[in-house]
Amino acid sequence: MTAILLAGVLAGCTVGPQYKPDQFAVPAGFTDAPHAATPEEIARTNAEMQDWWAQFHDAELNALVRAAIAGNYNLKIADQRIVAEHQMRQETASAWYPQVDAMTGGGDDRYSVNIDNWPLRPGNPANRPEASVLTYGARASWEIDVFGRIRREVEASERAIDESIEARRGVLVTMLADLAGDYMDMRATQARLEIARHNVRVAQDALSLTQRLFAHGVGNNLQVSQAQTEYDSEIARLEPLQAHFDRDAHAIAVLTGQPPGALEEALAAPSPLPVMPPFPQTLPSIVVANRPDIREAERAYAEDTARIGVAVAQLYPNFSVPLTFNPQASAAYQAFQLGGMSWQFLMLASMPLIHGGRLTAQIARARATAEASRLHYRQTVLHGFQEVEDAMSDWQHDTQLVARLDRASADATLTNQRATRLYGAGLTDFLNVLSSERTLLDVQDRLAQAHQAQLRDAVTLYTAIGAGWQGRALRDTHLPVDQSQQNILAKAFSR
């Protein structure tokens, strides 16, 4: 009893390093940020970023986001990983408590008669080879966590739960980015399809005009052949664009948890490009702390630090209390008599002595793993800053590109109109018409792609700052077990 009390006093001792967050200096702001952030601007930015997809003012995109959050299978898989980590923590924490097993049994036992029968076997005066045996009892063991091995393992399991939660948030952020990105690509592809169809009509009109002029003795069959080639080339642009649209529609459907073709018809309805949101008024560097991958890396470092303590505790004595209660008899009425009682109650202690360096190697490995996690955390932070800087730079440069291509599109449209009128009046060669049409198509297609890139830049920036998971509670992560279906023993001893 004294030993048990002493072990209880020592139970407050936990070996191994205590976790301390890594002190890592980060930039106070971003290179391309408009200005230093005020508390009010930070609060407004955080509010806008919580539902960042709403900044595009596209009702269909908002509906798809709701459907994806409810039905995406990657999110559901991440939910179950959280469940698994919770149960792993429960399994680890069970080592704190006595482990008790009940047993009972009975049957016949026969001894060999081809061995020395003297002295007579106790309880069997005639030394008969057969005997009936009835047994019942319990076995128990209890490890006293003097040096905190179990506590460190539970701590590591709790950090693993935190990791799984952050990983699930990361899945959500990635899913939102994929969905919004595919949606932007799909709408931009629709715009490019409309441009291509318009140019098909223009090429057909040019072909008809060339054929009429040739029929009236103006022009030659070379011009007719050139017009026919241009018309066929414009038609050939449609199929690759349609295939691209189909792939985006399939990807969006799968992200919402539906078969690939489920949304193809609904999404095929013409729709304008989403509204380009304004550049955030402020982008303080503290928002990078919202990135789930950074938060997950920090929790991984905390988990690996706790596992150093698990390895260190192996060097210290281990205290346990084994208990066995195992009465045996040959008749039921004898099973509860004092003579049939059999039990054992001990206080055991073990101390590692010689293991060929295995335990110290485990400690060194745990320390190296924790240091790798710390360095990975720093690398993840730097990568996060890089992604934000790149996204801001791309947004600003693509905005300038859109403005320039807008002017180029207006100029190309005017040039094409003039060339068509002059050709119709017989004042210029058809080659000028073809050249102006190709220039106009190229500029319009590049403008549509620039709009697509600009929308993608906004999605990338919102994703880079880790927006979208805030304010969204985790789903119920308890296993769907009906307590009413469990028997009374399961209810009593399920802890």
From TrEMBL:
<dbReference type="InterPro" id="IPR010131">
    <property type="entry name" value="MdtP/NodT-like"/>
</dbReference>
<dbReference type="GO" id="GO:0015562">
    <property type="term" value="F:efflux transmembrane transporter activity"/>
</dbReference>
<protein>
    <submittedName>
        <fullName>Cation efflux system protein CusC</fullName>
    </submittedName>
</protein>
<dbReference type="Pfam" id="PF02321">
    <property type="entry name" value="OEP"/>
</dbReference>
<comment type="similarity">
    <text>Belongs to the outer membrane factor (OMF) (TC 1.B.17) family.</text>
</comment>
<keyword id="KW-1134">Transmembrane beta strand</keyword>
<keyword id="KW-0449">Lipoprotein</keyword>
<keyword id="KW-0564">Palmitate</keyword>
<keyword id="KW-0472">Membrane</keyword>
<dbReference type="InterPro" id="IPR003423">
    <property type="entry name" value="OMP_efflux"/>
</dbReference>
<dbReference type="GO" id="GO:0005886">
    <property type="term" value="C:plasma membrane"/>
</dbReference>
<keyword id="KW-0812">Transmembrane</keyword>
